[in-house]
Specification:
With 265 residues, the chain is an alpha/beta fold. Helix content is 39%, strand content 16%. It has ten helices and seven strands. Strands 1-3-2-4-5-6-7 form a seven-stranded mixed β-sheet. Helix 3 links the parallel strand 4 and strand 5. Helix 2 crosses helix 3, helix 4 runs antiparallel to helix 7 and helix 5 crosses helix 6. The termini are far apart.
Length: 265
């Protein structure tokens, strides 16, 4: 069976236009892009999808023994771009999907022509000379809570991700987290928060925009600045907003940042 229906792919806009692929972050789905993606449907081929195990994807696709690292998601998305015969696509990835986008661009440079990394972090854990924002103890406590309490982790994590954004952002995130199967959420969280993609950044060879929230406890300014310094000629744009989801808390500004970047290319 083809991947597109299993990943709940939806496409809008002119078939001959440049493709722009929106990929959601942890515990979410393609609906998270509803305030941003339509703004590009007039002059782009907008592609939306749900990652394996997320949203309305075919859950039978998800096998725990396969999705032990971001490379499995990379391989799925490269296969999807090939299946849809998309070239020179703009890959817009939020949070963990920003790093999936980096891996896809490095593995299939002809398929990806530009990257937009929204609230990215190449490593969430602090390290020597690097401030990712979380200590080992922070991550242990979060993952332990997810393992112990399948119905109790969504509220605190939604609060962390939303930050001081409007209350409806936290409520939407909590609802989305609650709809994610607990075992899949726990495994994807471990893959996300224990990942380290810093070494992959220097291999990026496509134009890249980094969209940084000015107040983000999950991916702080230091994490975005590190990515800016590692990807040659990347553009670093700071949006004045709260939380880890500028496409929800500041969609107008997010659209403007993407539009300015695309108009330059």
């Amino acid at each position: 069976m083809n991947l597109a229906p299993r990943l709940n792919v939806a496409m809008h806009g002119p078939a001959e236009a440049r493709p722009i692929v929106f990929v959601h972050g942890f515990g979410c789905g393609q609906l998270m892009w509803r305030h941003v993606a339509p703004a590009f449907a007039e002059d782009h081929r907008v592609v939306l999808l749900d990652l394996p195990g997320a949203g309305d994807s075919d859950l039978s696709l998800y096998r725990p023994e396969r999705y032990t690292g971001l490379e499995a998601y990379r391989d799925d998305l490269v296969a999807l771009l090939e299946e849809l015969d998309l070239t020179d696509a703009v890959f817009v990835g939020h949070s963990v999907s920003a790093m999936i986008g980096v891996l896809v661009a490095n593995a299939a440079p002809g398929r990806v022509g530009a990257l937009v990394l929204v609230a990215p972090s190449a490593r969430y854990l602090d390290d020597e000379g690097y401030l990712g924002g979380f200590s080992e103890r922070d991550i242990e406590e979060l993952l332990g809570l997810m393992e112990r309490n399948h119905l109790g982790w969504q509220d605190p994590l939604a609060g962390l991700v939303a930050g001081a954004a409007p209350a409806e952002v936290k409520l939407e995130l909590e609802d989305s987290f609650c709809r994610t199967r607990p075992d899949i959420a726990a495994q994807f969280a471990a893959v996300t928060f224990r990942g380290d993609n810093r070494a992959d950044l220097v291999d990026v060879r496509v134009p890249t925009l980094i969209v940084q929230s000015s107040d983000d406890a999950v991916a702080p300014m230091s994490a975005g600045a590190f990515i800016r310094d590692q990807i040659p000629d990347s553009i670093f744009t700071v949006i004045e907003t709260h939380g880890h989801c500028p496409h929800l808390s500041a969609p107008v500004e997010t659209v403007a940042a993407l539009r300015e970047f695309l108009d330059r290319r």
